[in-house]
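Subject: sequence -> structure tokens, single chain

Hey, anyone have a minute? Need the predicted structure for the following. Not urgent.
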Amino acid sequence: MNSVQSQGTALVTGASSGIGAVYAQRLASRGFDLLLVARDQQRLDEAASKLRAEYGVQVEVVKADLTQKDDVFKLEQRLRSDSSISLLLNNAGVAADGLLGNADTDQLERMIQLNVTTVTRLASAAASSFAKAGRGTIINIASVVALFPERFNATYSASKAYVLSLTQSLNAELDGTGVKVQAVLPGVTRTEIWERSGIDASQIPAEMVMEAGEMVDAALSGLDQGELVTIPSLPDVADWDKFVAARYVMAPNLSKSKAAARYK
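Reply:
Had a minute. Here:
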């Protein structure tokens, strides 16, 4: 069995551009076959041709709109039935601009469908399949706004906080199964997500914007190092460790039979 076969297949959502396209290239270079999912058939086909030619891996493309339940259901079924799939990259997502009080709530509902519901359904299918196989990797793309929601609009920040929480809980559920789980929390990354959501990224200070290739390479390094949560921009991982430790300090006191003295 050669290295390509032994890696299995990586299912990548949002694979036609930006972070997803970079992940596809990096995973192909690691010997994964690919199942690329996005809405843009032409871009998918072009990417697949290049990846096959450059890396000699098998590449299948699936045109799907992951805000549509039927399309998500088909991917779920594929994850549950295709034993060759060994990695899920939950990357597809969208941002939204503006204040919650002024928002187009139909647009917000579509964002929640993609950023929250689709991520959950695909992670559930992958967790079930991978746990049975005793192997596999689930990577969920969250955002640093999960840790600092005041810096961005309410719904996008909340959707990414959900992804972080989901990943942390899922990791606990899958303990001992052989399945690896990772949440990646990028800062501002140079992709098309900004213009699609009506945000002028040129107004963001250059020192805050990371190239997608650098972000993905850091994220994969974090995966290799066994990190549950990878924050590519964070210089000192001790800062994250302190954040986690603070939660555990509070944990024994979060549910008590009596209210705290300050409320009496």
